[in-house]
Amino acid sequence: MDELLEGSGYAAQCSAIPWMTRDRFPWNLNPMIKKMHSGAKQLSRICDEIIEKRRAERDAGERAEKHDLLDKLLHLDEVDLRGNLITFLIAGSDTTAMTVAWCLYYLALYPGVQDKARAEVDGLGHDPDTIEDLDELVYVKCCILEALRLQPPGVLLLNECTHDTELNGHRIPSGTKVTTLLHKAMITEAQGGKNFDPERWLLPDGSSIDQARVRDHLAFGGGPRQCPGQNMAIKEAVKFWFYVIELSRCKY
Q1: Would you say domain 93-247 falls under CATH 3.40.250.10?
Q2: What is the pTM for the complete model shown?
Q3: 227 among the known binding-site residues?
């Protein structure tokens, strides 16, 4: 894993000239490129072993009462299933940690928001041991969503235009590669600007979270390739923040 991450970091710096990252002569003489491809192959083997074991358990009837995210994806072909599993293993730890860190900053910067989140935490009255408990922490979740809007852990989205279109007066031909800068896209006036306001994620009557807006949160991408771990990541962050708010006070 370390080799893959180290090599991938180098490859990201070469993204403007992607042919330099290929696993072929002479580019694979570069030790960093070697590390990346060696780590990727090892990770693929690990994922294949996990998939094979899980399918064997399913076929033997050993998972009749167990259902997790991998179980739900076993119908996919090998390439798609392996790709999703690699995403689960390496793509969620640093992004969630960064979101939690930024939320720490904003709660320290806005003590009124922190007090409101603390009142909700105290109102629950016990540790959030179930999904239902986490769903009760509506305002804390709004804080996480707003921190994600202002400081998305992902830098950009890469898409390809599938048909001729026009965007803001600019013609974009079919086949054009389109890069969306997430931070810039989510601090426009239409998205709420740069103000930290967790309540923008609530319905107009304030009764619950606007789920339609959450589904369209650009921090997780969009369409059929939207982050499959979106709900899990948010719940992880909410649970972490429950204990931070319960046991400490953030000061700037």
Answers
A1: no
A2: 0.75
A3: yes
